[in-house]
Batch of 2 targets.
Target 1
Amino acid sequence: MVPTVRAAGPTDAAGVVALLRAARPHLVVTPQVLAWQATGKPAERFGMLVGLGVRLAYARVVDEPASLAFAERHGYRSGRRNVILGLDLATAVLPPAPAPPAGVRLVTAADLPDPRPLYEADLAAAADEPGDVGMDEISFGDWRAAYWDRPDLDRALSTVATADGVVVAFTVALTDGRDRYLSGMTGTRAGWRGRGLARLVKHASLGAARSAGLRWAYTLNDAGNDAMRAVNAWCGYRPVAAEWRHLRTLHE
Ligand SMILES: CC(C)(COP(=O)(O)OP(=O)(O)OC[C@H]1O[C@@H](n2cnc3c(N)ncnc32)[C@H](O)[C@@H]1OP(=O)(O)O)[C@@H](O)C(=O)NCCC(=O)NCCS
């Protein structure tokens, strides 16, 4: 069979998802997510067109020689390393649930009457995340479109710790509605760190994911983020793969 190369269209989504699921077990991907990334408001954030005025292209490259060489040949330079961690929820024994500190309440993202406190906590945490590509100053409206309204966000499994109406810690859960769970982002407000809140929200979310019948949990860590790696190791996550972040300059 002679392969042909053509632009992807909406009817390719199911085939692309099947390929991605088989090749990258830790990805949470559905035809709905692909369609959503390609259209409407989110396309402005996830679009890959030079014509949009984009100056830097960002890619994540599997940590194996052929993929890294391919990226280099195409003008990408490598940045920081990510470790991908996995947990089999069917067999994992989660540690005992930690007790919330006084005044802290655990709820799900679905319970929030308004997502703005989560947006504020997300922005604050993202600013402290180690990395070479940070989250820019995104407006609440854009954040809603790009993160809160994404089709794979599972609000019932995304867990939030609140104190006096402020979100002090959170973990965002993305799922494929079949068997896979991925941590989108975990954060604790600066003044609340080191008190077990990241453990608390991750533990609650993983327990709820297991109760919901999901099997494979994955999370991605910057290799130098020791605090997050300590939390994930405590949850029972173990490394399953690695990748390198890459950047390519499109326009000076
Ligand atoms: C990573 C983060 C979520 C941790 O939140 P937290 O509520 O302080 O976490 P916890 O208190 O539950 O646990 C932190 C653990 O990391 C350990 N830790 C903290 N800093 C550490 C360091 N530099 N090296 C090693 N371990 C460290 C703590 O000692 C604690 O473990 P312990 O309970 O065994 O002592 C928080 O620091 C944060 O929001 N960072 C910015 C956003 C970010 O990087 N998010 C992760 C993106 S994947």
Note: The chain has two domains: 12-80+245-249, 88-244.
Target 2
Amino acid sequence: MYSKIIGTGSYLPEKILTNRDLESMVNTSDEWIRTRTGITQRHIASEDQVASDLALYASQKAMEAAGLSSKDIDLIIVATTTPDMVFPSTACILQNKLGIENCPAFDVQAVCSGFVYALATADMFVSSGKCRNALVVGTEIYSKIIDWNDRSTCVLFGDGAGAVVLTQSDQPGILSTHLHASGSYSDVLSVPGSISGGKVQGNPYINMEGSTVFKFAVKVLEEVVQEAVSKNNLQPSDIDWLIPHQANIRIIQSTAKKLGIPMDKVVIAVDKHGNTSAASIPLALDIAVRDGRIHSGQLVLLEGVGGGFTWGAVLLRW
Ligand SMILES: CC(C)(COP(=O)(O)OP(=O)(O)OC[C@H]1O[C@@H](n2cnc3c(N)ncnc32)[C@H](O)[C@@H]1OP(=O)(O)O)[C@@H](O)C(=O)NCCC(=O)NCCS
């Protein structure tokens, strides 16, 4: 038995923050941001929105596309770095918003690799027959953990959510999943603050060594894509669509170049919503499914890297 994605959905908050808007907030320029990152705008959640609100909209669209209703879902996994609260999990809050009475629901915290981790986990539940229909969501409100005075990070991130419904199938589906982590890099990309004694202790904003992240990302993304294709006796050139984590156009281009994958086989959405962390892969996937680029039978590779460091890939037949 395999697991197969049968519906995708996404949601971006209404408010758009352009590079020009950022020029009036910090010492930056549209030209610097576009040439270094490929980003032209990002979406920002309203003050009263929480990650489960964004997740709800994306989930409803994914379930509608799958032709399923809430009562059909028997597993919810939410990947997020910006949960609604310390606990309960955003997955439990989403479950309640969806009106689902009882099914396992939990969060996965693997930062920008979160969706790949969540999908790999859901695949194990579904392909083993433990669950029939899993809802897998990436949802983030990074605008809450950005220092809006720090030009080196505030231009990079945005808010959004993406979701898929994964169901049992006798045809592939997910072919293989590949997860990695190396905690020795935890200081390179982090939000080091925590809550203790009724207060935030330490820095509650993103702290990043940009060039170290860049080099590491290109190296491990190439490696994990090679690992995924060779596990299936394939070559990178067999991939119909590469759906990378949307952090930075230059990371995406460098990875594709090393793999010999032409850019017209790579789905790009970073220009329109910046780095939405765990939401970025399902957002890009949903865009390419809905605009008709991805067809039945095609080979699709999802890959991501993020704080931890964590990295991973999912290879699937659409
Ligand atoms: C962040 C990143 C775009 C910076 O690009 P870079 O080419 O490495 O630029 P540098 O960090 O070398 O900085 C170059 C200069 O630009 C400046 N700068 C940084 N942010 C700026 C901004 N928003 N606007 C204008 N100048 C900026 C720096 O202060 C530095 O100035 P200096 O030379 O006077 O010190 C790049 O390192 C990157 O994309 N890293 C990966 C980040 C990422 O994807 N993180 C998430 C992974 S999941």
Note: The domain at 175-317 is CATH 3.40.47.10 (Peroxisomal Thiolase; Chain A, domain 1).
